[in-house]
Amino acid sequence: MIAFEEARARVLQSVTPMLQSEMVPVHEALGRVLGQGAVAEFAVPNHDNSAMDGYGIRHADLHPQDAVTLHVCADLPAGDRLSQAIGAGQAVRIMTGAPIPAGVDCVVMQEVVQRVGDQVTIPAGQALGQNIRPAGEDIAKGALYLNKGVRLTPAQLGLLTSMGQTSVAVFKRPRVAVLSTGNEVVRVGNPLRPGQVYDSNRTTLLTALQALGVEVVDLGLVRDDRAAIREALERGASQADAVISSGGVSVGDYDLVKAVLQELGQIDFWKVNMKPGKPQAYGTLGQARFFGLPGNPVSALAVFLLVVRPALLKMMGVAEYVPPLLRLPLLEGRLRKKNNRVDFQRGLIRYDAQQPGVVSTGGQGSGMLSSMAAADCFIVLPAEAVDYAPGELVTVQRIDY
Ligand SMILES: Nc1nc2c(c(=O)[nH]1)N[C@H]1C(S)=C(S)[C@@H](COP(=O)(O)OP(=O)(O)OC[C@H]3O[C@@H](n4cnc5c(N)ncnc54)[C@H](O)[C@@H]3O)O[C@H]1N2
Ligand code: MOO
Is residue 246's pLDDT more than 90? Predict the structure, then answer.
């Protein structure tokens, strides 16, 4: 049995990022991973421009104590530019976003001036440079504005568009194959006889992979039969970069996944000091990585989120693949455990209390998918014995699909 941290470190150490990139249209790149840093070909904004609707003036025309009246010599909507400089005693009507004409070094918002005909009266007390957004204040020409290895968000795709990009270099996506095992497991849509369960693991795993943005291969539901499991693992290994199974990794008479993996590939470890997820088989099947998740529905999804997902993120080329931890106060109930396994309890972050914090979602059995469905985080209880009372800080990892 190895510690959770060691298991995850061993898995992460053994996977390598995708090497090849491909160009895809920016509007199809949501969730894809940037294959090379994006460098600005021009500055943003590309001109000094007005931050307000108002009047562009020369600061030297102002009087220290008294208002001054200037002549409005031009009208400048956003998108237009003024070819000539403004001279002494002149002002220009200017809209938000319009380029600052030569000579203007101060913009006065229209609410504080008085306009009569082509005269505008400006009160004292305007600062040099006020309401002018300088060229390059957002992004300088030549700056690296997005780092390689980010998983592209709508804001980042908007940023690429604002920089004139129509397509973007992203890493190729790993292919990941999924199968469920178990004679008692039934494909949904069929009647359920006593002792049977519907195949929820394939749904959670396939959709979690879909949310991650990898290419998914569905190997279906396989009986607890050596030949059938062997055939499915071989099929997966020949098509995919990673193969994920659920069930059959414990010590029961029909737990055959480990045995088949041993025949076809190599087992690195199969017991981890964590709860849920003590039995889990990790290894290689030819070129593919193999993750044998436990059958219990909470255990399967928890191990996926805690161990497999960071590994797949690394394979996808994501730079920050280890999730951050938070410290939040426990808001209600006691959380206590003996000295045994690291316990990833299912919790909910609450923002509505006077102080933000975390609560347990209730029943913590490895078969209780409802408390996982209600959760948005894991409350991480360390391997040693703990007894947390309300108000104490606990370690939290947000569940991020
Ligand atoms: N003697 C021991 N027994 C068990 C141990 C142990 O250390 N010694 N560990 C327990 C723990 S912890 C877990 S977790 C499970 C893992 O067992 P398996 O991976 O072999 O899973 P199965 O036995 O096949 O199934 C467990 C449970 O999950 C249900 N299941 C399986 N597949 C699905 C699916 N696709 N969708 C929904 N539910 C599924 C299955 O019906 C069982 O109820 O072993 C413990 N036992
Ligand atoms: O380790 Mo098992 O995953 O608790 O139910």
Answer: yes
ipTM: 0.97
User: Is residue 9 helix, strand or coil?
Assistant: helix
Taking CA atoms only, the protein residue closest to ligand 2 atom 5 is: 366
Ligand 1: does its nearest atom lie under 6 Å from the Cβ of 343? no
201 lines ligand 1 (CB under 6 A): yes
Under 8 Å between Cβ of 71 and 90? yes
Task: Indicate whether residue 292 lines ligand 1 (CB < 6 A).
Answer: no
pLDDT of 158-211, one tens digit each? 999 999 999 999 999 999 999 999 999 999 999 999 999 999 999 999 999 999
| Residue among 251, 272, 273, 278 whose CB has most ligand 2 atoms within 8 A, to mutate | 278
pLDDT given for residue 379 in this prediction: 98
Q: Which amino acid is at 322?
A: V
Q: Is the CB of 252 under 6 A from ligand 1?
A: yes
What are the structural domains, with CATH classification, of the chain? Answer: 4-18+173-316 (3.40.980.10), 21-40+148-171 (3.90.105.10), 49-133 (2.170.190.11), 325-398 (2.40.340.10)
Cα–Cα distance for residue pair 135/260, rounded to 1 Å: 63
Which residue among 343, 366, 378 is best mutated to probe the pocket of ligand 2, counting the most ligand atoms within 8 A of its Cβ? 366
Adjacent-strand bridge partners of 285: 288
DSSP string, 215-279: EEEEEEEE-S-HHHHHHHHHHHHHH-SEEEEES--SSSTT--HHHHHHHHSEEEEEEBSEES-SE
Q: Say if residue 353's pLDDT is above 70.
A: no
For 135, the 3-state DSSP assignment is: coil
